[in-house]
Design brief:
Elements lengths: L5 E7 L6 H11 L2 E6 L20 E2 L2 E2 L2 E2 L12 H17 L3 E6 L2 H9 L1 E3 L6 H8 L3 H9 L13 H16 L4 E3 L4 E9 L2 H17 L2 H10 L4 H7 L1 H10 L5 H28 L4 E5 L4 H14 L7
Parallel strand pairs: 1-6, 1-9, 2-5, 2-6, 9-10
Antiparallel strand pairs: 3-4, 7-8
Helix pairs in contact: 1-12, 2-3, 4-6, 5-6, 7-11, 8-10, 9-10, 10-11
């Protein structure tokens, strides 16, 4: 990459690592606006369940502008390809207004698509294949998917709908040219990771989980169901929406919901870190900072890293 490219800070971290507040504080000091890279925060009316901490964006009484949150209705289809298109539009808008884009997110695939600036082609839907899959047993489909790849990402088999789509993509990619091609980039991403120990991460997850329950997370799911969002769709979104929907519809008890959901969130957080470590193995440099240090120190650490890449010159 040319040294003249615009520096694009990318702050990543697992759930409950404090990355959103950190990004907002850094943005406030660098004439930046935050571009969110989260696969579920794109949905409107899915707030508590996706961990949208709107207050994190208020710094010294002013709201730091953010983008790519609340851009589609709950129940609509949204994927990596649509996100990437939306990111390009938001990025250009921020730059054209004389501001600095700053990415913040925990969805590894979304983040990596930005960092590597992929030129992506959507894998088409195969209606006939989907119909055939619907008539097959779940375990049979899982075994077929295993013939194409190792199932590190268990979200592929969270539901039959997800499983069929994963299998559809795997079949397509096995007989077609590479779907993701890196293209010329107009920015130079500087990736900064927020590192938190497993114990601290779990404690933060548990505390935030209880707070969101107290704030009405169950009621949020009930309202989505009342608005006509199918239970199957909410279950498809996974994590909070999966287990809360199962609880609200009487499939599991409250204690089962709380226990299973807390476990699932912790497992999800671990998978996020696994993805980030995989990014490093794939050649992406990540500058890790201590997510357990006081927030002021974290902000200074990020600014110090960015200054090493002359980020200050474009302020």
């Amino acid at each position: 990459m040319s040294d003249n490219l615009r520096i694009l800070p990318v702050i990543i971290g697992p759930t409950a690592s404090g990355k959103t507040r950190l990004a907002a504080l850094v943005a406030a000091q660098t004439n930046a606006e935050v571009l969110c890279a989260d696969s579920r925060q794109v949905y409107r009316d899915m707030n508590l369940g996706t961990g949208k901490d709107y207050d994190d964006y208020i710094v010294d009484g002013q709201r730091v502008p953010y983008h790519l949150m609340d851009i589609v209705d709950a129940g609509e289809k949204f994927n990596l390809f649509k996100f990437y298109d939306a990111f390009q539009i938001a990025y250009a808008d921020v730059v054209n207004r004389g501001k600095n884009p700053l990415v913040c997110g925990g969805t590894g695939m979304y983040v990596e698509s930005i960092i590597k600036n992929y030129n992506m082609h959507l894998v088409p839907e195969d209606a006939e294949f989907r119909k055939q899959c619907e008539e097959r047993e779940f375990d049979d489909l899982v075994e077929e998917l295993k013939t194409y790849k190792t199932l590190h990402n268990t979200t592929d088999i969270d539901s039959k709908k997800r499983l069929i789509r994963a299998l559809e993509i795997a079949r397509h990619e096995s007989t077609h040219a590479v779907e993701y091609q890196q293209q010329t980039c107009s920015y130079k991403p500087i990736t900064i990771g927020v590192s938190v120990s497993r114990e601290v991460r779990r404690n933060r997850i548990a505390q935030r989980f209880q707070k969101r329950l107290a704030d009405g997370m169950t009621g949020e799911v009930e309202q989505l169901l009342q608005k006509g969002v199918p239970a199957e769709t909410l279950i498809y979104y996974g994590l909070e929406y999966k287990y809360l929907t199962l609880y609200v519809t009487g499939k599991i008890s409250k204690s089962e919901m709380e226990e299973q959901l807390l476990t699932a969130i912790c497992q999800f957080s671990k998978r996020q870190m696994t993805w980030f470590r995989g990014m490093e193995r794939r050649g992406i440099e990540i500058h890790w900072i201590d997510g357990e240090a006081p927030m002021e120190e974290r902000v200074l650490a990020v600014l110090h890293i960015l200054q090493q890449f002359d980020f200050g010159k474009q302020l």
